[in-house]
Design goal:
The complex is a heterodimer of chains A (143) and B (432).
Chain A lengths: L2 E9 L4 H11 L4 E8 L3 E8 L2 H10 L4 E12 L4 H11 L4 E8 L5 E8 L2 H10 L4 E2 L1 H6 L1
Antiparallel strand pairs in A: 1-3, 1-4, 2-3, 4-6, 4-7, 5-6
Chain B lengths: L2 H5 L3 H22 L1 H10 L20 H6 L15 E5 L7 E5 L1 H17 L7 E4 L7 H12 L3 E3 L6 H11 L3 E4 L1 H14 L10 E4 L6 H11 L2 E8 L4 E6 L8 E3 L4 E6 L13 E7 L10 E7 L1 E2 L11 E2 L4 E2 L4 E3 L2 E3 L1 H9 L8 E8 L2 E9 L9 H19 L3 E6 L14 E3 L4
Classes of the chains: A alpha+beta (143), B alpha/beta (432).
Bound molecules: zinc ion.
Chain lengths: 143, 432
């Protein structure tokens, strides 16, 4: 039920993001979703890719600091209020969202939202109870 | 007298040898080197005034400036046709300092370096991987002759080409590594990259010097290379490597080869000699060198002398690991800061690697200090708040220890230059 995400440390200097996407492209790795969180001094790039371990190795070989975390990918109806209802369910279920980002799936009616919760087991239980579809890594790669 | 007898003499026996050698030296430089004679005359000292070792303090100091003023050969005591080798150390400003050796000096240097290697358990039969730079720098050749002197095998690999070095260490079965501590860590990182593990090597001991390093760095070298890492001290103005060396019985200081190099600790402000045990600037007088002897050379290194007997049986005094440089000392908003203190803080934080750089700037009339820290995989997080917690933890600990506020900036791995010689720890951009 969990999806592996890789996170990459970014120093605030121009061109590093391009270096990362270039490295991944050179290694034939597809990026499914991406988000950058940053402060004045540094940033963290979070990526969902089709080949997680290969991506991690390729980036490490290029002197990036890379981490791997589990997130969950929830299918959310791509209509007004779709996201709001998921967030309400999370709040009612007592979950804390560390971060989230979304991407729109071309081939379906739904958007996919990537969540990192403080308590991932509980989050999966809450989402399943509300009958949301939780995608696996393979499903995301197949999108 | 053989090494073992010499190194275990009662202090009074050693001191009588030192005094005889000192008296001879002072007479010789007074008669042969005009700048020494001029300084002694100015101070009103005659060679005959040196009656005891304590009289040493009557003699004027020698500084790097004296070497530069007499560039290149002005302080040599023998005609140039007796000098068989010169070395030079690059000055960060101005002229390099040049030192010379007679054939007897080279022989003496090989013997002190050989004795130093012996203290670290190196013997005939060892395969010594010498990654100190060969050239004008004394490190490579100085260590080289010492290895040959004790009959061990030397691999004169010098610096650079790290991957080839790893191959050589593995294929030749190197048992001893001679390298700067930062280059030893560089080798360890490169080994991990190419998939060579310490158990594929035969290394048992690393002898690291030529730049300051902390106990934490020692622990890292030992862990990453699976060896015992010991400290060696030397400087070209005195002879090169082989001035002092840690034995395997202690991690509290390096035995000074005192029958050749007479140490003092002086107060960095008043220049008065300090008793054993007190920290101050390390000063050396060479007792036996021919071509380029030096009297009371101020090293600018901060250390302490430990006279208590060592478990190894040697009665040679020990100098504590150099904890700072009188001229590395940064004054930031009126506070004295040594880079080694910053390193100490960083190594106390779980997962933080000792690769850092201090940047000092002046904004208006205010000094600002930034500490650049590489983000290792162990401390990295996918959450901003975890990384911010890390930087503020380091910032608080620096403030606690040093009394100054530093901005901690996380940088990508391997972006801080790992020099294969001396690591550049401080960038001071202030125009003072
Ligand atoms: Zn000892």
């Amino acid at each position: 039920m969990r999806v592996e995400q890789i996170a990459v440390f970014l120093e605030s200097k121009s061109g590093r993001l391009a270096d990362i996407t270039r490295t991944l492209a050179d290694n034939d790795i597809n990026i499914r979703a991406l988000s950058v969180a940053d402060t004045a001094d540094f940033g963290i790039l979070r990526l969902i890719v089709d080949k997680v371990d290969k991506a991690k190795e390729a980036l490490k070989a290029n002197n990036f600091t890379v981490g791997k975390t589990n997130v969950i990918a929830v299918e959310v109806p791509d209509r007004t209020g779709g996201l709001a209802t998921v967030l309400e369910a999370a709040v009612k279920g007592g979950l804390n969202i560390e971060y989230m980002y979304a991407f729109v799936n071309k081939s379906s009616e739904n958007a996919v939202v990537i969540f990192r919760f403080d308590d991932m087991d509980k989050a999966i239980a809450v989402m399943q109870e509300k009958e949301y579809t939780i995608l696996t890594g393979e499903q995301i790669s197949a999108l | 007298m053989n090494w073992q007898e010499l190194e275990t003499l009662p202090r009074t026996g050693l001191e009588s040898i030192q005094l005889l050698r000192l008296q001879k030296l002072v007479h010789r430089v007074y008669e042969t080197v005009a700048p020494y004679k001029a300084k002694m005359d100015e101070a009103g000292i005659k060679p005959g005034d040196i009656q005891t070792l304590a009289d040493l303090k009557k003699l004027p100091f020698t500084t790097k400036d004296d070497l530069r003023d007499n560039y290149p050969f002005g302080l040599f005591t023998v005609p140039m046709d007796e000098v068989v080798r010169v070395h030079a150390s690059s000055g960060t400003t101005g002229k390099p300092t040049v030192v010379g050796y007679t054939a007897a000096d080279i022989e003496m240097w090989a013997s002190v370096m050989g004795r130093a290697l012996t203290m670290a358990g190196v013997n005939k039969g060892d395969m010594v991987h010498n990654a100190y730079g060969y050239g004008l720098f004394t490190g490579g050749l100085g260590a080289h002759y010492g290895v040959e002197h004790i009959g061990a095998t030397v691999i004169p690999v010098s610096g650079g080409n790290t991957k080839r070095q790893i191959t050589i260490m593995r294929d030749f079965g190197s048992t001893v590594l001679l390298a700067t501590p930062s280059y030893a860590l560089n080798l360890a990182d490169a080994m991990a990259d190419v998939g060579v593990t310490p158990d594929q090597l035969k290394l048992k001991v690393g002898i690291h010097g030529a730049e300051p390093w902390s106990e934490n760095m020692r622990e890292e070298v030992e862990r990453k290379l699976g060896i015992r890492a010991v400290d060696i001290y030397g400087l070209s103005e005195v002879i090169g490597p082989g001035v002092a060396m840690e034995c395997l019985e202690t991690d509290k200081g390096m035995h000074i080869l005192e029958d050749h190099f007479l140490p003092e600790i002086v107060d960095p402000d008043t220049f008065e000699p300090l008793p054993y045990g007190e920290a101050g600037e390390l000063v050396f007088t060479t007792l036996t060198k021919e071509a380029f002897p030096i009297i009371r050379y101020r090293t600018k290194d901060i250390s302490r002398l430990i006279v208590e007997p060592c478990a190894c049986g040697r009665t040679l005094v020990r100098m504590e690991k150099v904890t700072g440089r009188t001229d590395d000392m940064l004054i930031i908003r009126g506070v004295n800061v040594f880079p080694s203190q910053v390193e100490h803080v960083l190594m106390g934080v779980e997962g933080v690697e000792p690769h850092y750089q201090i940047e000092v700037n002046r904004q208006g009339n205010l000094d600002t200090m930034s500490v650049l820290v590489e983000v290792s995989e162990q401390v990295f997080s996918d959450e901003i708040k975890a990384l911010e917690a890390l930087t503020s933890k380091i910032q608080i600990e620096i403030k606690d220890l040093l009394g100054v506020t530093a901005k901690v900036k996380l940088v990508e791995p391997r972006t801080i230059a790992r020099s294969e010689g001396k690591a550049q720890r401080v960038i001071d951009n202030r125009q003072l």
